[in-house]
Design a protein that fits this description.
Three copies of one chain form a homotrimer. Chain A is an alpha+beta fold. Chain A has nine helices and twelve strands.
Chain lengths: 352, 352, 352
């Protein structure tokens, strides 16, 4: 007698506009997760590394890395949203809204905010707004994501197409909620690793983050399981060997975290990733690739009512197997240059 | 001057019926171990993942994964019991008896409950009952294990053969002590990841757990060292290259944990592994293997005096490099099918 | 517009006698780090493994492994001291001065205590005394290290040569501060894993630690990032492929930790590494190498005013891809034998 109790994942027909999906497995995040995060990416931002440093500027203790929060909240959505996804098409309006500390318990809910069948009638695009909450029900993270999902049956009727309005960027007035009011006279720039504050950066400035990090199969699997992300392509060499690339694909979030960690060299005081305006995983990353990164300052913004921190909008680009001294991005025909892995548009906060 | 202070391990002659062996290196288990356990196996059972979820049903906080307890208690026994073992022959009567929380300190003691020389006079079978205790001296885990151990000297006289009575299965009345009385109206089936309770499963039901996980050398070594298991075959490529398989052998407990973790897909509410009735490592697992799993419901049992949880006796089968849609187990001649790694008989508990 | 905000590292000309460098990124060390340390090296010393064991002899709880403290303090110095280093020439006078517990925050400062240009005028030797402190400003670790550093410009004038007096060994009166006064009647030798105390070892005794551990690329990278060590040679296969060895070089501290961990088999009661008198990384270690170790007792010392612990001065030798039953060290011509990785001279403490 064969059971039907396993999760087949949702197909395009299963998503309805307005539907709310509670994702499984809430997760208490701990200092153990923080240690693993450090060991997997080598992150060095002082606020997240040192309780003493964090307290000196007004945090009760070190918050967890913002991307750890993102990955945990995101990971929960994979069994319901992207198990039958063909492609992760984009992100928008991702905002960190409350600091997360060791001992907090994170859970995720997604609301379907758009559905649109593709003209081939085999697939459709699903737009969801996913929300991560802590044990008190406070929202710690919110983001919109759209994925291309297979239909169960090509003959199913198409739903009414609803495509949400996607903001090109998060407004400066909407960011910074995850940073409590800080007393920046307690901020030690020697310990932070750089003298450069918000005011020292200029729009148009490009920063080569110099260092490269080679990724191993065990490393990205350990990272992705830590987030309880279940997407099959990251873990199963037996099936991936017969797949498009012949090998496992690294979870895109690992590339984001590596790039963010490498960005310390040049952006050491950008201690908080406040928002992701948009992002594109330009090409897949595999074990054995060496990841480099560079950033461009796209925009500077003051935050309403805040004299402690200012925001830089950065383009954070990750590239594989080549250094970034020439800031590789696109070729003359407008296509991404070979080796570009990630093109991320984000707001980071620095002391003013 | 050469020292004789290293541990040569025990040979068959060193084990005497009734002997009690206190194993070295008690271990305080922490949230750090819990994070590593999640990162190594991707386990998703809500009770062990979320303090909030655990508290809502009556735990003081999230208990550690039952198999983490097993591996830590087991690991301590390896330097004394199995350093000169040729084969790990079996397990019986393994019961989890008390929840283990971060901060608890585990230690292990083994009692020799049987010895029997083999007819070749070169080896013998040793039966031990190993007991794991917490810092208060409470027994948290108990199991019987038998191993084939080399003799130091083939001419040593054979001891009187004593073979203990080994129960084929743990009685339902003997399981569940590691689960406090729970208030199941606090159990959220959405957060747990499945609507199926104890009553929804039927004897004979077979569940393909669908997903596969490819194991890397670094992963099983990190796992096995976490348990302070010292068995040489898992760690030393220099000697294993000349050995029977030409490579390191994955600790069998890693396969059990992977299979248990994969079983979430179909058995998400089986939040507690209460007992192992018996188990066989059918064939060795190596780095590079992709592990799949399936389960069969062998038996259902109520627990005396408990309305909160019910027990399912499952056969949990792990297989490598093939999916489990046809539930691979044995061939027509009664031998295990190619690729079968593990055939485990266990009791798991679910909400009623 | 290209940024100049990245860290180019210091060149020989940048170091001045008497200069004090505050290193970036203080680090709160936690039970998460302790778990990772265990999982990476399989260490089994009872004092660092069990709160219960540690309390029974007078610690408030388990201290962190001494080498974890060393690696974290050392790691912070790499961006400032050794980013442009050609070679790590030596260590001296390394002393553990205070126990470090989970929750403590470590930071590092280095003072330049010597500079000497080399005759080729392309490089120079820089001597630093690095100091690790906890959140209260107490020194937990101190050591001298000297490195060969590239000059920015070969034509820069040579500074006045100053070479510090380097002690050949730490005096016994100067060690042990990191161990509180202990009540050794609470020390359980069964749980510790060996009956041999300080008095049982003899000068000249050689101990083969027997076991070997094969190192994987992911393992040493995870370890070295945990310490926030940024030395490029450990992480970047893309550049190292074109380098001298064609592959990544394992951080020498990983070899020290592996050797120390293997030394449990023969030195199980040497629970504290109190000082490193000197050390040499004889040859590079790479992923795939199997590390073995042996020790020789060089000296025994009582500690002034202490009846609880005694000191053994050991030579701890790590070797790759061969066992240590013949205690490999040097060949007849006085050169190190093939395969020797590490020749470390250290003080360890044992119960008396």
């Amino acid at each position: 007698m064969t059971s039907t109790k396993t999760n087949p994942g949702n197909f395009f027909e299963d998503f309805r506009f307005g539907q709310v999906i509670t994702h499984a497995t809430p997760r208490t995040v701990t200092v153990g997760d923080a240690s693993l995060y450090t060991s997997l990416y080598g992150t060095r931002f002082a606020v997240q590394s040192s309780d003493t440093f964090a307290k000196a500027i007004g945090y009760p203790r070190s918050p967890l890395d913002d991307l750890l929060t993102f990955h945990v909240v995101f990971g929960k959505t994979t069994p319901d949203i992207s198990l039958n996804a063909i492609a992760n098409l984009g992100y928008a309006n991702c905002r960190l809204l409350k600091p997360v500390y060791p001992g907090d318990t994170l859970s995720s809910v997604s609301e379907v905010i758009g559905v649109k069948e593709n003209s081939n009638r085999e697939t459709g695009t699903v737009y969801v707004r996913s929300t991560g909450r802590n044990q008190d029900g406070d929202v710690v993270l919110e983001y919109i994501r759209w994925v291309m999902v297979r239909k169960r049956d090509n003959d199913s009727p198409a739903p009414e197409a609803i495509v949400p309005d996607l903001p090109k960027r998060v407004e400066p007035a909407e960011i910074g909620a995850a940073v409590p009011p800080l007393t920046m006279d307690g901020y030690d720039y020697d310990l932070a690793g750089s003298p450069y504050r918000w005011g020292d950066y200029e729009v148009g400035e490009k920063i080569d983050h110099v260092d490269g990090m080679t990724l191993e199969e065990a490393e990205h699997q350990i990272a992705t399981r830590l987030y309880q992300n279940t997407a099959k392509v990251h873990f199963n060499q037996h099936t991936e060997a017969k797949g498009r690339f012949g090998k496992r694909i690294v979870y895109g979030g690992v590339v984001i975290s590596l790039a963010r960690s490498l960005s310390f060299n040049g952006l050491a005081n950008a201690f908080h990733l406040a928002a992701i305006n948009g992002g594109r995983h330009v090409s897949p990353c595999f074990a054995g690739d060496t990841v480099y990164a560079w950033s461009e300052i796209l925009e500077k913004a003051e935050l309403p009512g805040r004299a402690d921190v200012g925001a830089l909008r950065i383009r954070l680009v990750a590239v594989k197997d080549r250094d970034c001294s020439d800031f590789p991005l696109k070729t003359e025909d407008g296509k991404y240059a070979e080796g570009v892995l990630l093109d991320l548009d984000a707001w980071v906060l620095l002391p003013r």
